[in-house]
Amino acid sequence: xxxxxxxxxxxxxxxxxxxxxxxxxxxxxxxxxxxxxxxxxxxxxxxxxxxxxxxxxxxxxxxxxxxxxxxxxxxxxxxxxxxxxxxxxxxxxxx
Length: 95
Hints:
By secondary structure, the chain is of the alpha+beta class. 23% of the residues lie in helices and 27% in strands. 23% of the residues are buried.
């Protein structure tokens, strides 16, 4: 994965063609938090993973934004995953 960490952007990665969007997002969240994916709180409690995969793999341009375990997450249909610390004042993923 092509990760990038910096104070302004937070954590940026991309969804590759070999995994579903939800699998890539879980891996990216685990990388951003520095933990094993199995140690994360259940993502399905926050967002419907099947619906998210359908939206992100469908035709057209779309994005999904949600808060998860102290993080603001933005996933775009072009494969970009942006994660920022939700505890920072005014922190919100941006493109």
